[in-house]
Amino acid sequence: MHTFAASISKVFYGTLIHSVSINEIEYIKQGLLFINSQGKIVKVVKNVAQEDVESVLDGVDSGKLVTLNDDQFIIPGFVDTHIHAPQYTFCGNGHDLPLLEWLDTYTFPRESKFADRDYARKLYTKAVARSLRNGTTSACWFATIHLEACKELVDIILQQGQRAYVGKVNMNQNSPDFLVETTESSVRDTRAFIEYAQAANPSSEDASSALVTPIVTPRFAISCTSDLLTQLGQLATEYDLPIQSHLCENMNEIGFTMSLFPDSVNYTSVYADHGLLNERTIMAHCVHMKEEELDLMKEKNAGISHCANSNFNLKSGMADVRKMLNKDIKVGLGTDVAGGYSPSILEALRASRTCSVARDMESSLVVAELFYLATVGGARVMELEKTIGNFEVGKEFDAILVNTAVENSPVDVFDHDSVETKFEKYLFVGDDRNNEKIYVQGKEVRLPGAQVASHK
Ligand code: GUN
Ligand code: FE
């Protein structure tokens, strides 16, 4: 009994809300959730009356107890399965052009600035803080081709305490002179980046898993030669790493890709044919997928990042998430900043609902499904479903302490509100002002105050 008490670092008492399946949100009322010094959830007790808290605490020092009020609840942190760190610099701009023209006109010139490491440090500090503040406790980041700036992004993520996959982008063809690599430098720098990122995690006994993982990141097939794609597939195998890229986002992109890779039967097969499609692969968009491409995704157990906000802004189209789910393909949500104008997964969730209603009202996504996609779905796409996504005992505590009664926040609660309606208001009306505290691996994240305006 005493050993248990000593190993506990924090206990929460109040309402806990999480997905237990794609169809079910569990509202744990008067819950006690125990976290150990490694940031793992070791015990959850439901329906504990106030007068019984002390006995259930079982000797844990009451100084470790955080008691929530009726307007507060705890949810799992959000998982952003697709976001571009350098593109935060033009988040909200440039929605007048479709994908390929948007890349040439806005994206590539902005990304080229990250050749400067000092610039990268300043801008990445803001991008990561903004993502965390919005409740993204796990993110799959694209950086740029620049090795030094990529290292900076890893350092900043570790300083701020987000869980992340970080990718050095590869581009050796169909790219402007100011943002292109040779095959040799691309592979050499990717290897150097992988080794840097793997060594950067503090090898402490008090963390249960690494926070930052490098991810192999061919930008998309258009920007990589067949030779480079093959070598990147080999690197992913050699280092046992996840892989991320873009797939079937836009019709012109698909046409151009098939003209470059005539030996592959479809766009999805281009990645498969180069050893880049497996259970650790995350493909963003997947808007215009043929039946056999979705079947190939399922066969390989690869995951999809649904980026509805971006798909509306760049007029890419509306992905058929219902069909993906019916085929039991792993799906999570992505903000895709800056194709998406918001770094918030709440906004991604809302755009996903609008997308599903616009596609087919009869089979549109319901709240339980949307919340699942934003949390457990994303964890599955990252192959982290045993580590994060909900509050099962044994998982690590990545969470948001939400307060629905923050002055000047967009959420108003009334006497008739229940826990369920407060939660739904947060999902559809709330923003980062309602995210009172953010936890990753059991530790409260301290955002650099000067970098992002405080709303309090
Ligand atoms: N395809 C290749 N690069 C990009 C990118 O930066 N954003 C989006 N949305 N699609 C891409
Ligand atoms: Fe993207």
Query: Which residue ranges are poorly predicted, with pLDDT under 50 across at least 5 consecutive positions?
Result: 450-456
Strand content: 15-25%
Shape: globular
Number of helices: 15
Care to describe what's here?
- With 456 residues, this protein is an alpha/beta fold.
- Strands 1, 2, 3, 4, 5, 16, 17 and 18 form an 8-stranded mixed β-sheet that branches.
- Bound molecules: guanine and fe (iii) ion.
- The site of fe (iii) ion has 6 residues, from strand 6.
What keyword list fits this structure?
single chain; 456 residues; alpha/beta; 4-stranded parallel beta sheet; globular; binds guanine; binds fe (iii) ion
Q: Can you describe this structure in just a few lines?
A:
By secondary structure, this protein is of the alpha/beta class.
